Amino acid sequence: MQGDWMINLIVSMITLVPGAVLLMFAGRLEYSPFAGLNPAYVTVSRRVAARINRLLGTILVLGSLASLGVGLMYGVTIQVSILVIHVITAFIAVTEYSRRLAEIESLVLPPEGEPRPVPSLGLYGKLLVLASSITSLALAIASVRVLYGLDAVGIGVVMVSINMLPLYLAFLSIRRPEAYALPHLKEPVVKVLIVSIPVSVSLIMASISLAILGADYWWIPIPLGLIIGAAPLIKTW
């Protein structure tokens, strides 16, 4: 029993600690690609960044505490499932809210000079991004049938929920590419990022589904996704 309690606590700490850090330092965090939530919207001003990091911190802390209670009552598998769904939902919701805050901030403090041009995807880029995310979701749905046969419906729900992330990233790439236009990145890097991020995440998610489906060489999409995800670094160099 003591061991189970400790596992539940460790799982909840995965989001509790980052959330608490964001809450404590939200108003003092300078922009960094490694700190806080970083769609380009939050770089409009420190005020927007502080509000978003504070909101994200609050959501992570509350979610981790709730997951701890669920884990103690129903076990660590359900706890992990709830926590994964919570983090994916929080990422999407907070990113959408950051866009709204950025729009309001730009009305209060209009940016100086000419607006920075944001590259957009051509037809082939849109098809690639959309096809990769839809394929990833389709494989996740197929894996649910296998998990259902193993009485692991909860894990199947998590699989489908996780694959909402590549779909959302594809949506950003196609309809809101400005979300990737971080101030420290040059236009060619942003153009690569718009494609590489959703495609790489889709590949990695697809590999998990392929493993559940029992496919041979299911691991191949993982290094491929990591290579594609690292493509912007090549442009930066």
Roughly how many Å is the radius of gyration?
Answer: 19 Å
Termini, distance in Å? 52 Å
User: What structural class do helix, strand and pairing data support?
Assistant: mainly alpha
**Shape summary:** flat
Number of strands: 0
- The helix content is over 70%
Structure report:
The protein has 237 residues and is mainly alpha-helical. Helices cover 74% and strands 0% of the residues. It is built from 9 helices and no strands. The longest helix has 33 residues.
Write a brief caption for the model.
With 237 residues, this protein is mainly alpha-helical. It is built from nine helices and no strands.
Essential attributes:
flat
Write the layout of secondary structure elements.
Blueprint: H1 2-25, H2 46-74, H3 76-108, H4 123-149, H5 153-162, H6 164-175, H7 187-212, H8 221-229, H9 231-236
